[in-house]
Every structure is written in C-alpha cells, then in structure tokens.
Specification:
Blueprint lengths: L3 H12 L5 H8 L3 H10 L18 H10 L5 H9 L7 H11 L18 E14 L2 E12 L5 E6 L4 H15 L5 E4 L6 E5 L2 E4 L1 H10 L2 E4 L9 H15 L7 H13 L1 H4 L1 E2 L2 E5 H8 L15 E7 L4 E4 L2 E4 L7 E7 L3 E6 L2 E7 L7 E2 L2 H26 L3 H10 L4 H15 L1 H13 L5 H14 L14 H4 L9 H8 L15
C-alpha cells in the first residue's frame, strides 16, 4: 500500500501535466511499476512502449562465438570485424556490449601458506609520497620486512630505492630481529633479480654477496604470483593505515625513530594471525631460537660510486658538490657514502670527509680546501711577476733574495716593483735596484726613493699618475707634439729683465 497523497500526486501529474510514466516515476522516486499500478486502479488505460529491436541483435551470435574463441580480443578489433558485416552502431555502445558478453575466467582458489618457525621472511619496497629537502624533492620509500611465521615487522624509510638502500634495509632489519631467516622472499624487482627466463634466474651480484654473508637463501616469487608474498603486502597496508596515516614528523630521522618505536610497541602487540590468542611478540619469542645467528661483522652497506673530477676541486655526488684538495683534480676518485657521511678517496687514501647533504645543487666545502687553492693561485701570480722583473732588471733577483732573508713580504715588493717598471722603465728600475743593493737595503721605499733621486739628477720630474676614463676612444687617442717657435717669439716681445716696462713714446 502506498500513501493516498502519493496516489493523488501521480494522478495529478498524469492528467494535469500529461507527464509520461517514466518521468513521474523519476520525479517521485518510485518504481515505474508503481505508477502503472496506480493509473490502472484509477481506470487509466496504460499501454506499454514497444521495444525497438536492437541493431546489434543480428550480429550477437557472431560476437559470442568470436569471444568464446578469442577471449582477450579487443573491442575495437571486434567492432571493425562486425562493421565489415554491416553493423552501423557506435563504438562506445558496442564496447559496453562486448564487456557484458566477454567470458570471465573462473575464480582461482589458493591454499593458505604455512611456514615453519625461522623458515622465511618477505620483503618489499612501498612508496609513501615525496619529501622536500631544501631545493630537492625526493621519493619517500619504505623498506618493509616481515617474518612469515610470527609476523614480526620491520619498517624503515629511505630517500630512494637504490641498491645501497636495499642492502642497508636488509642489514638494519637483521639487526632489529637480532637474527636472520633462512629464506628471504622477493618480488621480481631489479634490486634482487636482474634477468629471468622461466626457472633460470640471474640475481643481482650484490644481493648474492649479502646472502653469502648472512647465510640466507634469496628466493623470488613465481612470475605473476604476487599472492605468494601476501604477508608483506598486508604488512605494507597495515603500516599505511596504522602508522603513516595522519602522522606528523620533522624530518626522515624523526619519522624513522617513530617507526622503530611503533614496530617495537603497537605492531608487536597486535594479535598474531596464525594464533590470535597470542601477540606477535609472543610468537616471535617462540620463533627466535629457530632463526640463524648474526655474523660477527655487519655487511658493509656504504654507497660506492666512481666519479670523474675536472679542473675545479669539486666532486659531484647525489645532486650536490663536495670539495677536495686542489692537487687531486683531473682524475677519477671514489665516493663512499653513508646516510650521514661522504668520504672521498684517491685510490686507498681518504682525501676528504664531509657531512652528507640531501639537498639539490648545494656546495659542501671545507675552508682549508678553498684557502689552499687561493694561496697557490696568489703565489703563482707573484711568481710570474718576479720572472718578469728578473728579465727586465737582473738586479731584482738578488733584491728578492735579500728581502726574503730579512722577512719582507715578497708579494708587496713584487707589486710595487712592477708598478715602478711600468711607470719609469727597465733602465731606471735597474739603476735604482743596484743603488739599493749597494746601500744594503731591500725596502720598496728605498728603490722608489733612488728612482726619484736619479730622475731629479737628470732634470726630470717624477711621472704623474694619469687616470683616464675607461673609454677606448680616449685610451687610443694620439697627441701630436706642437712646435714651440711661436712661444719663442712671444718671449722676444716680453719685458726686459731689468724690469723697465715703460712703453716707448709714440712718434
């Protein structure tokens, strides 16, 4: 039974507004059969709308037969085949028909995976967005390893998924468990499997070195059998929902500290799926005696990169530049990096150590590296100046020796002598230096004094410094000497030397 008000509204819309049954049903949010029943009870004769024959009906048998023979045939290809047989319908409508008629594979059932204590662990990478550090935007990747029997969980975040981080994740996971499982199960990721053809597998050699060090067996899952590592997949979903969601952290170190605390507390206290009457921590305590022990030394997991250095004393590593001593340029060096430190080696010798930066385009410098290069360049400039002076004035060499014996600043002396050479010439400088040596002095002021004294003795005035504007037109301007005869004529017409300047009487 429906309300009388609803019946009245249906009749009103039919008689007064002349709405069709479908419109009335949509407007009043009732089924169209309800509208038909109300109208029939009111004596309204309702006729059903004739159903148009579908244009695809003549081709339905062909479509079903073709899909049964080729279940994965694309709808676009099948549409072309049907059009060749006369079909004129649109591709979108046809695609919907094919999706409805395409045979579905039967659902596959799986056996529940059972493992023994200490037998197996599963690990994988998971992407958790991006992290901005300075000018760099780096991927935030989580390395997850879970013990298949106890479901003990390890979670660690890294700024990438490179091979060095992959190895480091294993080492830190084994350290966290204080033990090693006998088998580690992987998906067919490149960090584990480089190439695979059926059962023929070529593992990453670094992973094999790690496995030999910790004595576990690396084992990839079968191709297209991701369900075989479902425990790590569920562990990743658990970490997303129970740990990372709505999580606030300052940086990746803070995030990892929180992740470690979560693994040791909340994640370890959850019920074990194999025996919900016990916690993961309790089952892990049962599993621990069955795991392999740790070796005496952890596997080295430093990132190792060979880099080529050009003329500048910088090494480019992971988007940033690190300084090196200037005498190690133009060669190939080795970078060994941890999460905190970058060491640079020339052969087996460590030539520089820096704190690691995860920024982009940063210059990490040691002041001593740059100061040594600046000092060398300054000394080189002074050496070139001394060579020039010794060629122009041979007495400059003993002057430098004397100045060095007396602790004078050779750079200041060199710059001053070069200025005297440019302003007075080589001959005058040589004479002044010889005079200074004769007086047993190597002071710049003495050389300058003797140059001025020699110029005064010859009746020459000391040169005046002329500063011209930085204009090529003025610097290249040539001034021609003018004759002085006109000035001589003027002196003849000047007053007498006796001071008698009385003009003569005019005739």
């Amino acid at each position: 039974m429906i309300a009388r008000a609803l019946e009245a509204e249906i009749l009103r819309l039919h008689h007064a507004e002349h709405w069709p049954i479908g419109t009335i049903a949509a407007q009043l949010r009732v089924h169209h059969s309800t509208v038909r029943r109300v109208l029939a009870q009111a004596g309204v004769e309702v006729t059903k709308t004739p159903v148009r024959a579908s244009i695809v009906a003549p081709y339905m048998a062909f479509i079903v037969e073709t899909l049964a023979k080729y279940p994965t045939l694309r709808a676009s290809r099948l549409h072309t085949m049907v059009r060749e047989r006369g079909y004129a319908g649109a591709p979108d409508h046809f695609r919907a028909i094919v999706a409805r008629l395409r045979p579905r594979p039967a659902a596959e059932a799986y056996l529940r995976l059972r493992t023994l204590p200490g037998e197996q662990s599963q690990c994988d990478w998971a992407h958790f967005g991006k992290l901005t550090i300075g000018r760099a935007v780096r991927p935030l990747m989580a390395f997850v390893m879970v013990l298949s029997y106890s479901r003990q969980l390890f979670l660690r975040f890294y700024l990438g998924a490179s091979m060095s981080y992959f190895i480091r994740g294993h080492v830190e996971a084994f350290t966290h468990f204080t033990a090693v499982p006998r088998v580690v199960l992987y998906d067919n990721l490149k960090s584990a499997v480089l190439e695979r053809a059926g059962d023929a597998i070529r593992f990453n050699p670094t992973l094999l070195e790690l496995a030999a060090h910790y004595r576990f067996e690396p084992r990839p899952v079968a191709v297209a059998r991701g369900n075989e590592k479902g425990r790590v997949e569920r562990a990743i979903r658990f970490a997303r929902d129970a740990f990372f969601a709505a999580r606030e952290f300052r940086d990746i170190d803070d995030l990892n500290a929180q992740a470690l605390a979560w693994c040791e507390a909340a994640a370890a206290e959850r019920p074990c799926p194999e025996d919900r009457s016990r916690s993961v921590r309790e089952v892990f305590a049962e599993e621990t005696p069955h795991l392999l022990g740790l070796p005496d030394n952890p596997f080295p997991c430093e990132e190792r990169v060979e880099v080529s250095v050009r003329k500048t004393p910088y090494v480019r590593f992971d988007l940033n530049d690190y300084t090196i001593p200037h005498d190690h340029v133009n060669r190939t060096l080795t970078v060994l990096a941890t999460l905190d430190t970058v060491r640079i080696l020339d052969g087996a010798k460590v030539i520089a150590t820096h704190p690691r930066s995860f920024d982009r385009g940063a210059q990490i410098e040691q002041p001593g590296h740059i100061e040594a290069l600046v000092t060398r360049k300054r000394a080189a400039r002074a050496h070139r100046g001394q060579d020039r002076l010794q060629h122009a004035a041979p007495s400059a060499k003993p002057l430098f020796l004397l100045a060095a014996e007396r602790g004078a600043h050779l750079g200041v002396l060199t710059r001053g002598l070069l200025q005297l050479l440019d302003s007075h010439g080589a001959q005058a400088l040589e004479a002044a230096i010889a005079h200074a040596l004769a007086e047993d002095t190597a002071h710049l002021g003495a050389v300058r004094h003797f140059i001025d004294a020699h110029a005064h003795a010859r009746g020459q005035r000391p040169p005046l410094a002329v500063s011209l504007p930085n204009d090529p037109r003025l610097q290249n301007l040539r001034v021609r000497a003018q004759p002085l005869t006109d000035y001589d004529q003027l002196t003849k017409d000047a007053t007498d030397d006796d001071g008698n300047d009385t003009p003569k009487a005019q005739p």
